[in-house]
Amino acid sequence: MSTFGAAAANHNPNKSFEVLQPPSDSVSSLSFSPKANILVATSWDNQQVRCWEISRNGTAVASTPKASITHDQPVLCSTWKDDGTTVFSGGCDKQVKMWPLLSGGQPMTVAMHDAPIKEVAWIPEMNLLVTGSWDKTLKYWDTRQPNPVHTQQLPDRCYALTVKYPLMVVGTADRNLIVFNLQNPQTEYKRVVSPLKYQTRCVAAFPDQQGFLVGSIEGRVGVHHLDDGQQNKNFTFKCHRDGSEIYSVNSLNFHPIHHTFATAGSDGAFNFWDKDSKQRLKAMSRCSQPIPCSTFNNDGSIFAYSVFVMTGVRVLKITTHQQQRPTFSCTCLRNLKLKASHELEQVVESEGCFWLEND
Amino acid sequence: MGKKKKRVSSKVWCYYCDREFDDEKILVQHQKAKHFKCHVCHKKLSTAGGMAIHVLQVHKESVTKVPNAKPGRESTDIEIYGMQGIPPDVLAAHYGEDEEEAPSKAAKVDIPSTQLVGGLVPGPLGVGYPPQSTLGAVPPVYSAAVPVPPTGWAVPPRPQPWFPQHPAVSVPPSAPMGYVQQPLFPVQGVRPTLPVVSTSTALQPSQIAPPGLPTSTPPLPVSQPLFPVVNNNVPTQSSPFSTSLPTSVQPSTTAEVKGSIEVHSSVNTSVPGGAGANSHSYASGPNTGGPSIGPPPVIANKAPATQPAVNEVYLVWDDEAMSMEERRMSLAKYQVHDETSQMSSIDAAIDRRILESRLAGRMAF
Questions:
Q1: B132-155: per-residue pLDDT in tens?
Q2: Is B41 on the interface with A (CB under 8 A)?
Q3: Do A245 and B318 touch (CB under 8 A)?
Q4: Residues of chain B found within 8 Å of residue A114, distances taken between Cβ atoms
Q5: Is B41 exposed, middle or buried (0-12, 13-18, 19+ CB in 10 A)?
Q6: A192 to chain B, minimum CA–CA distance in Å?
Q7: How high is the ipTM of this complex?
Q8: Nearest chain B Cα distance for residue A310, angstroms
Q9: pTM above 0.90, yes or no
Q10: I need a labelling partner for A256 at 20 to 30 A (CA). Which of A199, B29, B55, B191 fits?
Q11: Residue B325 belongs to some domain of the structure
């Protein structure tokens, strides 16, 4: 499947499956359809939005390129509609295009901002699209109308967005995290200054909407609960660091079923963690290049991440890493613990007891 | 969490490695796991001395240094448990590095020098320290590099209520008491007048070590936990410390300016948040290092540039003012040639960065 077999070791140390015909520049976002195993990637090259159908045969994963559309400028974000028929993508051309790819339709512009659109999300319960941009606003769109349903001012540029109805968290440039209750989207529910002392890079809402994760450029992830009574459960931990180099955490994704989460960083590694037991479940080998984005598929059986491989040709690989369910489930966590409890303790402690340091 | 700055000085911290924690229980857990743990059998003891004795008796080996401790703090003789047992000079030095730019409470100094009024000085001292009321948001500052003359300085019983703005004062461990703000004033001149040691309960205000003691760390408390490794930089710090007023001032300013830290100087680019920066400043003097990776990295997605110094810890992406995507967008490669699509809302900072990087020849494209 890979045409770069010789160099595979460097950029694919985890023996992930590589997707055919990847974009020629790095990928800015990945999203899986909520209904099927169709993966969409947006990239910086030719401003393309491409999609593949991912199929699994036993333990192998195959990808078939399906279609693509283009924007005028690099595309930064993408999301699917909840019925799995339409993809929304937005980027530096300050527009969001709606692409009904299952029906083979043409993309239509449905949203506009004054500055590049960094994040987009579909809220099925409200039937609205929300977009966050560097023009310091958040806009809600009904795709049938050209004007936004509501515009929400943000204190600074939007850098990250996550939605888990009715919880929505927006990370802005000045390290603010604005929490919205989507039942009342016109007012900020809460504004929290990031527990991390560095620029916010990504956020992810807990599947149970009790809080969110925030990742920063400083190799640290913060776990923050919204409820005041649960504030003592907040903690931060360090990750994606290598010796004296501190890498940015680029992507945080919750596993849809097990509620463990994965982090992907600029060090080229991705790890799986469990916030409740405060442990790292699995650390994958580092790739030679940063991982700018990653995502799970709808049932959590496939984890896709992108690695920007700079060979002379600058080819990019999107690899889907097959998850063996047992390893990542909560039940297996117990296995890990029982089997090698002293080892695990060692590992955990050698990583700095991340949950103990409340800095 | 907007109160972070003020709170920081009242947090507990580990004597051995200068990390800070929210409460003492966590601190103790940390000490047991990191400093009082037997390296042979991993048993956690309750003190360093206890650990040394255990290793000697059980494994027949002698331990002279506390594991994971900073140089100068490795002695197993000092009996530390949580925040108890920390020598007063070290305590003062630690809090002295906690300074914010606004001078904090006036010292209550018994020291018979200059203008300082001895004894409790519930108000601004003649020295011209800003009135206590300004301290509303500033944690009391300990004199950074000021030796506190041991004489006559009996524990000024700074009554807690004296610090109205500091509810945390009642917290024993750090009881940050009024410390004169050193760094903004020429240390040399004011030195003798500054002293004032916290009368935190554990402290016997006897000796405050001479300024050479800032083995404790980079000025920003924030940076501590990030750098368990930065031990080697500390010694170099002690000298710049007393003279490095500019250095101390910078972090405090940057501490204020969270996000949009435009580069005030090359050092400042590495100072956002302080952490990464401190190593930069130390490595080779205040300005020469600049950000270890030179001007903000070309593209964050690329592998990091080579690191200049082994012991420095640096952020691979340390540009607080822009995100990676914004930076990338500003590259020529992604610019569309007609002006209409220029990103007008991205401010001039981006242009400047492009210029800087181009000049530095670091653009890979």
A1: 444 444 444 444 444 444 444 344
A2: no
A3: no
A4: 344-345
A5: exposed
A6: 7
A7: 0.71
A8: 9
A9: no
A10: A199
A11: yes
